[in-house]
Amino acid sequence: MIAMNKMNWILEVDLENRQAIIEPGVVNLMLTQVVQDQGYHYAPAPSSQQACSIGGNIAENSGGPHTLKYGVTTNHILGMEVVLPSGEIIEFGGPIEEALGYDLRGLMIGSEGTFGIVTKAIVRLTRNPQAYYTMLGVFETIDDATSAVSNIIADGIVPAALEMMDNFVIRAVEEAFSWGLPTDAGAVLIVELDGVEAGMLDEADQIIRILEAHHTREVRTAKDDEDRKKL
Ligand SMILES: Cc1cc2nc3c(=O)[nH]c(=O)nc-3n(C[C@H](O)[C@H](O)[C@H](O)COP(=O)(O)OP(=O)(O)OC[C@H]3O[C@@H](n4cnc5c(N)ncnc54)[C@H](O)[C@@H]3O)c2cc1C
């Protein structure tokens, strides 16, 4: 058993090049907390981000609610230092994108620790969006909610988040957290736009029209950051 949780130092933050060098035991959310006041975050954020480590994220190629727009871990790890089972220490990838040769960095990501132990990683930092627009559509049926998803994508809109919960999950979440989700709904669809403020309301209107065309019975929108976190 090798525990990596004490290798939890953020070794270098290079905002100019939008990257950081970290040890694998750094907790996912901690990395974002360290850079967020300077306008950056670490994009792949699994729902377990308060507890999971970047080393574990690399091993699992983790995503999160914003994967649709921002991709998964492999899109945000530029390079890494790895200790092979032989004890040899090697580097895959590096600070420069699209290095020549085989993408052994990509091979490591998602390999569940079977090829070696990651002891250092160069991660990409992402600019915080200027604005968000978060909404929740309530549907009688899963079919309506999933058709709305297809329609949003077909219209060329790429929301930052597009997540559906069916009735079983809605009731389980309500039982655990009492967030006011409609427990009689067949499905709810959480849609979040992010990016520059200009034009965002038009895109949100376009999405609301799509949700309505697919018989949403209600669209809830987040009025502030607190609302947004709840949704
Ligand atoms: C409540 C919850 C919500 C989740 N939500 C999401 C989600 O929204 N999206 C998503 O994609 N995933 C999600 N997950 C899964 C999540 O991505 C993984 O559980 C997480 O990435 C594992 O990280 P960890 O630090 O817990 O690793 P561990 O569970 O400790 O380890 C996971 C694997 O990684 C290997 N490993 C750990 N560190 C290293 C290292 N340094 N080098 C090599 N191998 C290593 C371990 O050997 C093990 O095989 C969720 C999990 C939970 C529990």
Automatic annotation (TrEMBL):
Keyword Protease applies: no
A GO term, aspect molecular function: FAD binding
Domain FAD-binding PCMH-type, first and last residues per copy: 1-128
Alphabetized InterPro entries for the sequence: FAD-bd_oxidored_4_C (IPR004113), FAD-bd_PCMH (IPR016166), FAD-bd_PCMH-like_sf (IPR036318), FAD-bd_PCMH_sub2 (IPR016169), FAD-linked_Oxase-like_C (IPR016164), FAD-linked_OxidoTrans_Type4 (IPR051914), Oxid_FAD_bind_N (IPR006094)
Record keywords: FAD, Flavoprotein
Protein name (database record): FAD-binding PCMH-type domain-containing protein
Species the sequence originates in: marine metagenome
